[in-house]
Write a structure and sequence with these properties.
The protein is 38% helix and 26% strand. It is built from seven helices and eight strands, in the order ββααββββααβαβαα. The longest helix has 16 residues. The mean pLDDT is 93.
Length: 185
């Protein structure tokens, strides 16, 4: 059986074939002939993020460090729908600073499985706290959920989740500065 990293591509293709057949689709139709392979590659690509080495540097900087408006696409674990998200990740350094690209990677490396937006928000904050031991961490994620847009309530609303730790939780001024720098999430 063909396997890419942890993915069983042949099983994924078989599952897509069964789904299409369940929809009454003729798999000999040229429009669907390669759909199982395409869908399997799509999921394997979406769930194969780049991993971070968490390279840190000593710093005396005491201001806010913010990654603003980083766009990612997660996968809803309930409906397997893509969830476009806009992510804001901030921290207040104590002794160490993280390489700037690593803030984005801290988010992306947590998208290797379907994940709830709430869990992703918490996991990113947990990782930053564990690796940096900063004075504060703030993570805010805004998502557009297909399960809400295309079925059920049929709402175009954004879902916003946040995790505030340390100074961003305890100090209203730090939290206010973060929100001002982000703008409306």
């Amino acid at each position: 059986m063909k396997k890419t990293k942890r993915f069983h591509i042949a099983k994924m293709e078989q599952g897509v074939r069964l789904l299409l057949q369940g929809m009454g689709i003729d798999l000999n139709n040229p429009n669907y002939k390669e759909t199982p392979q395409r869908v399997s590659r799509l999921f394997a690509e979406m769930l194969s993020p780049v991993h971070s080495n968490w390279k840190t540097f000593p710093t005396s900087y005491r201001g806010l460090v913010l990654l603003r408006n980083h766009e990612v696409i997660g996968l809803c674990p309930h409906h397997l729908q893509p969830v476009p998200m806009r992510v804001h990740v901030a921290y207040l350094p104590k002794k160490t600073a993280l390489g700037l690209s690593k803030l984005a990677r801290a988010v992306e490396e947590r998208l290797s499985m379907p994940v709830l937006q709430e869990q992703l928000t918490q996991d990113v904050a947990d990782a930053l706290e564990a690796h940096l031991e900063p004075l504060g961490v703030g993570v805010i994620i805004t998502g557009r959920h297909g399960c809400m847009q295309y079925r059920g309530i049929r709402s175009e609303a954004d879902v916003v989740t946040s995790s505030m730790r340390g100074a961003f939780f305890n100090d209203a001024r730090a939290r206010e500065e973060l929100m001002m720098m982000i703008g409306r999430p």
